[in-house]
Design brief:
- The protein is an alpha+beta fold.
- Helix content is 38%, strand content 9%.
- It has six helices and five strands, in the order E-E-H-E-E-E-H-H-H-H-H.
- It has a five-stranded mixed β-sheet.
- Helix 3 packs across helix 6.
- It is globular.
């Protein structure tokens, strides 16, 4: 499998979950393990460009697949500037959409998939794309603003 653009071998453990590979084996701790049952969305990563819950995804299902985590989004960035935060990550910081931080990486990954397929989403589309991600702190207002801001900046090429 490929994680953040790097080829990685699959674990020998047939019961290993993607979240275990990401966090424990690769030490990429941006992907959070909160509920462990697919309810909160904090472990959301992109699997072949689509949001997937790493706490429910068996690593054995991943040969030939591509996984992108929050760390990969940062290092890749929309501008392909190594190590630079993506426009979406920057917008989350600037709009104070990061509160306690547990949901942030999952929210950003879900929003990233949305912006990849629709560069000009309205509020309802943003809410639908984030429906699988729970935030207990923000009330979602800052998160919606951050996604709108990043979308606008990406469309206008100001990032």
């Amino acid at each position: 499998m490929t994680i953040n653009g790097r080829a990685e071998s699959l674990p020998d453990d047939q019961d290993a979950l993607l979240v275990d590979v990401i966090r424990d084996r690769l030490n990429l701790t941006g992907t959070k393990l909160v509920c462990g049952s697919g309810v909160c969305g904090a472990c959301t990563v992109l699997l072949d460009g689509k949001p997937a819950l790493a706490c429910l995804t068996a690593a054995i299902q991943l040969p030939g697949r591509e996984v992108l985590t929050i760390e990969g989004l940062a290092s890749r960035g929309e501008n392909a500037c190594d190590g630079e935060l993506s426009a979406l990550q920057t917008a989350f910081v600037e709009e104070t959409a990061i509160q306690c931080g547990y949901c942030t990486s999952g929210m950003i990954m879900s929003a990233s998939a949305l912006l990849a397929r629709n560069p000009d989403p309205d509020e309802e589309e943003i809410r639908m794309a984030l429906a699988g991600n729970i935030c207990r702190c923000s009330g979602y207002h800052q998160i919606i603003r951050a996604v709108k801001r990043a979308a606008k900046e990406l469309r206008e090429g100001t990032v």
